[in-house]
Amino acid sequence: MADQSLPEAGTSTRSDRADRTDRTDPADRVSQAALKEDGSGRSSGSEDAVLGEGISRRRLLGTAGATGLVLGAAGTTAGYAAQPAAAAPLSSVGAGQVMFHGKHQPGITDGLQARGHVVAFDLAAGAGRKEAAALLRRWSETARRLMAGEAATQDDTDVARDAGPSSLTVTFGFGHSFFARTGLDKQRPVALDPLPDFSSDHLDKARSNGDLWVQIGANDALVAFHALRAIQKDAGSAARVRWQMNGFNRTPGATAHPMTARNLMGQMDGTRNPKPADPDFDRRIFVPASGSADPAWMANGSYAVVRRIRMLLDDWEQLSVRAQENVIGRRKADGAPLSGGTETTAMDLEKTDAQGNYVVAVNAHARITRPDQNGGAAMLRRPFSYHDGIDADGVPDAGLLFICWQADPVRGFVPVQRKLDRGDALSQYVRHEASGLFAVPGGAAAGEYVGQRLLEG
To answer: Could you say which of 48, 122, 211, 269 is catalytic?
Structure first.
């Protein structure tokens, strides 16, 4: 994929936005030089453009400073990772803007951001459907304003003053417990039933699940933190934070040319992921608008599985490079399969060496997680790495905030994780420490708030 660059763009700052009513559409500032020269009219590395007018506009607006999707925790579950979006000069990072309103919520098909926060809330004692509706209305308006590069409606902290939108996205979801708390049990999707136990689980219940879930991402740390504080303040007396986790990814423009990112194990992580150009992408990732067993309010929504996966880096780094490659099934230098070729070459699972042994071991992570080894099960992974310092034993508390999206977790995440439990070579180097499953409704139309069809239906 050819390297692309964007011209230096004017950045809309928060210092004067309160007095401005006429905003220049960032799409008008995207140079034609950033588009493919093959006559397609689509930005190179932006496969999401085919999802439709709403997504196409979102992808276009997010070109400045957006990076591509990459694989989750050294691939702790199956799926493919999208190609990285075009590299961008750091001066253009702030200009990237993602639309709040659309068919799907933001933060699902958009490129990975450099900084992220995932946070779960529980409704306060006595709060119910009415309070939840008011909260989602506040949250949606705050998200809309901040994603447009505007100040929060009230008591803005000025943390992000002078910064542009920086490809900020805010995504909202509902946990299993939310429906009983709001008297909406009959509207709870069957797909939201609790995940089964897995042998690799060492779950901290205090850092798992929750009534409400919010995912925040941006290409600037202060912009992301500003959104986090605004969301927390908006919760007011209606909800309290249950848990919060902070993550990061590679900053746009940090590499000389677009390339697959690496995880904290040093592996190229994100060679393949379901692409919006795939004919079955929507069927696998999003709940259809009709003909589904899901309730109507979940139309165009998705289910997010969130897992805090500790990487046992001290143990991993004691392995030789060759041993690490055998665990994964791919070369560390360039991500190519051990069976040969380049990063994107199809893996030959039947190839053997001179001794008759499989070149890609039977317990190699890349072999086990392939959809064709799991009845076609696949999901869209969109993770953040994390590092929370050194724990009491003197080892790094680091790993992956694994977030994957699918139309049905029972057909996506669950079968693959069960297979990983039965013999993945990577399992001795990772530990699942927290987990959550959330129903993420479709995007809000102009004038609506996220979840309105559920809460006011």
So the answer is: 269
Q: What is the pTM of this model?
A: 0.81
Which residue pairs from 53-56 have beta carbons closer than 8 angstroms and sit at least 24 positions apart in sequence? 54/99, 54/102, 54/103, 54/104, 54/443, 55/102, 55/103, 55/104, 55/109, 55/276
SS (H, E, C) 102-156: CCCCCCCCCCCCCEEEEEEEEECCCCCHHHHHHHHHHHHHHHHHHHCCCCCCCCC
Distance, CA of 275 to CA of 372 (rounded, Å): 16
Locate 45 and state its tokens.
């590395």
pLDDT value of residue 25: 41
**H-helix or E-strand spanning residue 306:** strand 302-311
Q: Kindly tell me if the per-residue pLDDT of 49 is higher than 80.
A: no
Residue appearing with tokens 């051990």: 338
Return the SS3 of 172: strand
With 70 as the cut, is the pLDDT of residue 24 above it? no
User: How much is the mean pLDDT over the chain?
Assistant: 84
* 108-133 burial code (b ≥16 CB/10 A, e <16): bbbbbbbbbbbbbbbbbeebebebbb
Does residue 269 have an active-site annotation?
yes
| C-alpha to C-alpha distance for 51 and 104, rounded to whole angstroms | 10
